[in-house]
Write a structure and sequence with these properties.
Blueprint: H1 4-9, H2 30-36, H3 42-46, H4 49-63, E1 67-69, H5 76-80, E2 85-88, E3 92-95, H6 101-105, H7 115-129, E4 138-144, H8 146-155, H9 163-171, H10 173-197, E5 201-206, H11 217-235, E6 241-245, H12 252-259, E7 263-265, E8 282-287, H13 289-294, H14 296-309, E9 315-319, H15 329-340
Parallel strand pairs: 1-4, 4-5, 5-6, 6-7, 7-8, 8-9
Antiparallel strand pairs: 2-3
Helix pairs in contact: 4-7, 7-10, 8-10, 9-10, 10-11, 11-12, 14-15
Bound molecules: coproporphyrinogen III (CP3).
Length: 341
């Protein structure tokens, strides 16, 4: 039997649609918090195959979702490029920011640093295959897209308007292009290794597409993403790839046409039924995470509206962004039940 998620990514509509949630593994789950309490170093936690396997499986086991998403982080690529990365308690990610062209030229990708991630993928595939409740779930691997990862590498943290990287891209286009090249190469290698370890689909997170000025969109988003998709597909032509350019708004159609992805993640600000993409391209989204936090009738009504609006099209049910930390796990169970009824 073809797994539901993979069949939609081939362009075949399914009713009810497959469902998974961005950030489905995380601090809203008590079983996640219990493991995390004993693993204060978040990078080491992501690179511990036993812990990462268990955390990947937790939401699939609990909610019988149609996909597992690998437990890792988009900032493991800068870590493997030799940039210092740490997660300060309550502050989110921190990196020693790249200050100049010399710092960019010194980056070297060391795939051995991410070998534990491949072990996690093999463990998750084996565990899901052995459990009837999880055997129909597909394992999604992922990476950040170059612009989004580069914002952290240049700014050194999240929560800015990305003025430093925008200034760099305008002022020194060749240095910026060099950084995109380094990230295209590392990310392609990383995703190909994930495919070889057993990832059944891949997602590219472009979480900060909204801060890219229109004049840089081609150089910062479309071109690097298209090159990664082409590199992965050269080795694994049938492996589906989902791109999630959050906040890309009017660029979505161009993004679908220019990058060659099989599916597009849509944020909650966008009218998903009105997004124009080639018929083979699946759309994924886009329930407001606040509705999941809130639960109840409003959540169920909006889920129903989305499913009806996407009827007959290749559609994957998801949120418009990640599960929010205070979300009660029962609301996820209610949402999955509503989608399947
Ligand atoms: O369940 C899943 O979605 C799989 C695992 C996953 C994580 N991060 C684990 C994580 C995935 C797919 C990511 C992607 C990621 N990481 C993105 C893109 C998606 C998005 O949210 O837009 C980004 C921008 C990052 C960078 C990052 N990692 C930030 C900004 C933070 C801090 C924010 C926070 O919630 O604390 C992280 C930490 C992080 N990554 C956590 C998890 C579960 C929380 C860390 C903890 O346990 O303390």
């Amino acid at each position: 039997m073809v797994k539901k998620l993979l069949s939609v990514l081939k362009g075949e509509p399914q009713s009810p649609p497959p469902v998974w949630l961005m950030r489905q593994a995380g601090r809203y789950l008590p079983e996640y918090r219990a493991l995390r309490a004993n693993a204060p170093d978040f990078v080491a936690y992501c690179l511990n195959p036993e812990l990462a396997t268990e955390v990947t499986l937790q939401p699939v086991r609990r909610f019988h979702l149609d996909a597992a998403i690998l437990f890792a982080d988009i900032l493991l690529v800068p870590h493997a490029l030799g940039q210092k990365l740490w997660f300060a308690e309550g502050e989110g990610p921190r990196l020693d920011p790249l200050e100049d062209a010399a710092a960019i030229a010194a980056l070297r990708y060391d795939p051995a640093k991410l070998a534990p991630v491949m072990q996690t993928i093999r463990n998750v595939r084996a565990a899901m295959a052995a459990d009837a409740n999880m055997a129909n779930a597909a394992l999604i691997g992922f990476a950040g897209s170059p612009w989004t990862v580069a914002t952290y590498m240049i700014e050194g943290k999240g929560g800015t308007d990305h003025e430093k990287i925008r200034a760099l891209a305008w002022r020194e286009p060749q240095t910026f292009a060099r950084l995109m090249d380094v990230l295209v190469d590392a990310t392609s290698q990383y995703l190909i290794a994930q495919a070889e370890a057993g990832a059944e689909a891949l997602q590219l997170f472009e979480s900060w597409a909204a801060t890219v000025p229109a004049g840089l969109f081609e150089a910062a988003v479309l071109n690097p993403t298209a090159r990664i998709v082409a590199n992965v597909k050269a080795k694994h032509p049938d492996l589906p790839i989902i791109g999630f350019p959050r906040g890309a708004g009017s660029w979505l159609t161009r993004y679908a046409e220019a990058t060659g992805v099989n599916g597009i993640g849509v944020d909650q600000m966008t009218d998903i039924a009105a997004v124009k993409v080639p018929a083979r391209v699946a759309l994924q989204g886009n329930l407001d995470p606040v509705l999941l936090l809130q639960g109840g009738d409003a959540m169920r009504a909006e889920a129903k509206r989305l499913i009806e609006a996407m009827k007959g099209k290749p559609f994957i049910f998801n949120l418009g962004h990640g599960v929010m930390q205070p979300t009660p796990p029962d609301h996820v169970a209610e949402l999955v039940a509503a989608i399947r009824s």
